[in-house]
Amino acid sequence: MSKELTQKKLVMEYFKENPCRNIKHPEVVDWLTQEWQVRNGEKKFRDPDRAIRRLYEENFLQKISKGVYRYDPDYVKNRKLENFTQAQKDEILKRDDYRCVICGRREAEGIELQVDHIKSKDRGGEATVENGQTLCAQHNFKKKNYKQTEMGKKFFIRLYELSKKIGDTDTCNFCTHILEVYEEHNEDDHIKWKR
Predict the structure, then answer these.
(1) Residues near 159 by beta carbon (within 8 Å), at least 6 away in sequence
(2) Nearest to 157 by CA among 146, 118, 72
(3) pLDDT at 133 > cutoff 80
(4) What is the pLDDT averaged over residues 73-100?
(5) Domains of the chain as residue ranges with CATH
(6) What is the percent of the chain where pLDDT is above 90?
(7) pLDDT by residue (tens digit) across 26-56?
């Protein structure tokens, strides 16, 4: 049995012993490090972050917020991840005119198009045409690393700056209105916008 599998089992054991509880990352890491040393005589648990992340990716754990995970036996039992069928992908691509809905680029411009879940699978998003969107690989990657609203705000900031630069006041006013709504609701306040 590999060390990685042993470490993974140890992470699973901890969460199974603490079901339906939101657990902060440091609590898990401290226990894993101590328990790993007791059971295996090794001082360092090789990569607890990776082991926890892998269990999240495998839908054994729910990610509640940054650094907070939860094991819910009912969630695991009832978990049904859905992928788009090829027919759904084709319909979504056609609906979106074979363009990234963020930047408008096409495959003819040398980019890869991907069909993305608007509400992500790990947050319960279903594989329906309504929950699908066409993204270029770059924006799909960014979406996975940013929240959807954060990505949207960045898009409107870029559009605002471009419109201002070329003197398109209608688009500038539109973006100003949208960005004011973000600010009104304190969405992604760490992303700064200058008028």
Answers:
(1) 171, 175
(2) 146
(3) yes
(4) 84
(5) 3-78 (1.10.10.10), 86-145 (no CATH), 148-184 (no CATH)
(6) 29
(7) 999 889 888 888 887 777 777 788 888 888 8
Cα–Cα nearest to 133, from 119, 152, 154, 112: 119
Tell me if 81 sits within 8 A of 104, measured CB to CB: no
Strands 62-65 and 68-70, by their bridges, are antiparallel
Q: Which pLDDT score, from 0 to 100, does residue 55 have?
A: 86
Highest-scoring range by mean pLDDT, 40-49, 105-114, 178-187: 105-114
Three-state SS letters, the chain: CCHHHHHHHHHHHHHHHCCCCCEEHHHHHHHHHHHHHHHHCCCCCCCHHHHHHHHHHCCCCEEEECCEEECCHHHHHHCCCCCCCHHHHHHHHHHCCCCCCCCCCCHHHCCCEEEEECCCHHHCCCCCHHHEEEEEHHHHHHHHHCCHHHHHHHHHHHHHHHHHHHCCHHHHHHHHHHHHHHHHCCCCCCCCCCC
Sign of CA dihedral 145, 147, 148, 149: negative
CB atoms within 10 A of CB 186: 7
Q: Judge whether 37 and 43 are in contact, CB under 8 Å.
A: yes
> Residue 17: is its pLDDT beyond 90?
yes
Rounded Cα distance between 46 and 101, Å, is: 40
Q: Mean per-residue pLDDT for 168-172?
A: 91
